[in-house]
What does this fold into?
Amino acid sequence: MVVRREQLELVWRGAKAVVTHRAVQVGALVGAVMLSLWNVERVPHTSVLPAAIGLLPFAIGKYVLCPLRWHALSASGRTRAWHVRAYAESEILGLISPWHAGADLWRVHRLEATGVRRTSAIASVALDRFVGAVGLIVAVAVCGITMPPMVLVVALGLAAVVLVAAILVRRRRPGLAGSWPWPSPKVFTAGVVLSIGYQATILGLLIGALQAVGDSVSAFQLVAVFGASQLAGVLPGVHGASPREGALVAGLASIGVSWTAAFGAVALTALLYWVAALLFGGGCFLLRWRGWFKDPRPMAALCAGGTGAGLIAAAPVPD
It folds into this structure.
């Protein structure tokens, strides 16, 4: 057990060193953006206005709704503004890493910098991921009337597996479960609602991208294809070339969109992700580097309370 813990600690330190290394960040960032630009250049026709209109609700969903969900679930003691900035910074690292893992590592790192214990920080980010996945599954289930029965069965099956696993862990390992943040039903429901709202903004971005490449489809068909492609996101991949993008291209082609337009819309969507990330995340990095924002001093004590996360005892420190 001790050897395994030391191995996990070594892996964690190595991953953290890679994620926080500036040369790695810049290199991966440039490569990922160039890949997105190369994909968009292959599209014969694009229009800026529909893409910009679709980007606006997505930016609100990604950089407002998602941080608010994390803030409600984590009970980290930090302000909403702190969570918004830390989340925006993490998105840049998430887009250049498989499975968006870099974003999670950065959020854990930022929480640790404020004095939150590593186990509690990991639990906070894991809970946010879990609630986001629940929101996705609920959104897919709501769209079930327009989706193939098999896709709906897979979505509900995944939800059932996650729920059973959580119940078993809580019953058989009460000590482990007690160290994890278990939010109140009200907070959990609010998190799921925010997740569903975020999924709706991604759909708006996709609609704008389709309009930008000169194509359009039925809203019901698009919802079905979008829901099915989101399920492919459980497979690892790098942003812009992941199974989710591949499934979305194939799904759009299956409902009448030309392969060129489908590829172009998905490539444009991937590029618009970068536009928002560089604007908000890059801006937050720059302002913090320039000293506009300062991290609060580490907090010394931990205790249970709040929404059930039980991460800290000290009062929130103003930003």
Summary: DSSP finds twelve helices and no strands in the chain. Residues 299-319 have pLDDT under 50 and may be disordered. The CA atoms of residues 252 and 262 lie 6 Å apart.
